[in-house]
Amino acid sequence: MPDSNPPSSPPRVAFIGFGEAGTAFARAGRWNGPNGPWARGWDVLAERRAAMAECGVEAASDAARALADADIVLSLVTADAALAAARDYAPLLREGATWCDMNSVAPETKRAAAAAIEAAGGRYVDVAVMAPVEPRALAVPLLLAGAHARAAQVLLGALGFSDTRAVGEDVGRASAIKMIRSVMVKGLEALSGECAAAAEAAGVFDEVMASLDASERGAPWAARVAYNRERMASHGLRRAAEMEQSAKTLLGLGVEPVMTRGTVQLQREAAKISKNEKKGAA
Known about the structure:
Blueprint: E1 13-16, H1 20-29, E2 32-33, E3 36-37, E4 39-42, H2 46-52, E5 58-59, H3 63-67, E6 72-75, H4 82-89, E7 98-101, H5 107-119, E8 123-129, E9 142-145, H6 149-159, E10 164-168, H7 173-202, H8 205-215, H9 221-252, H10 258-281
Parallel strand pairs: 1-4, 1-6, 4-5, 6-7, 7-8, 9-10
Antiparallel strand pairs: 2-3, 8-9
Helix pairs in contact: 4-5, 7-8, 9-10
């Protein structure tokens, strides 16, 4: 069973990657011990290493130095570098060090990273950062998954992170929650942008916004999703045809209907699936 006892002394933390998130965490944490910084960091960009000193983080001469005696590692690289970072730096970890993969990547990517860290003797934790790091910093909500999630909660708590929650022992579960949530959150952003661009191009922005306000139901999201799925299953073919005309309208206004074309496809597919299920049940 993973150790969940509080550490006897503040954990030694290492940053791999020091962008916006690392900067926000370090500034809020003031991770300097009485005998000098007990937070070290490494970033492939020299300018980011130079920024560490302002935040109370010792800029290591290389990744090996940053990781040499770290109890907990915060991996905060770009998404496309998350797996490579785990594979490249796993051999540099001390035995039993906790690798908190805070990068926004797919569950499959996190499982591959976990394999590399665990094979080298480290403890991998899938961490999903569930809100912008500014202005919350150490109060940003974090979801943790993996066999060492609860032990990592203790370490993160000792560093000052105040809103952490373990969501399961399967690596990828925290990431799945975030990635699937992002389908809605980021999709709504894209869809609202597409809608607004068309409304502005047609000169009807205020009228469209007022109409959306008037039609807002405010029901819980689970109920709204269930309602939307039922409508798509029952009326998807008709709605797809209507949305094809919406796409044509947007094209006429000079707006590329990226999201709307996707809506056409999903509405049509939902109707076909529903029709096939009804045939199978007959």
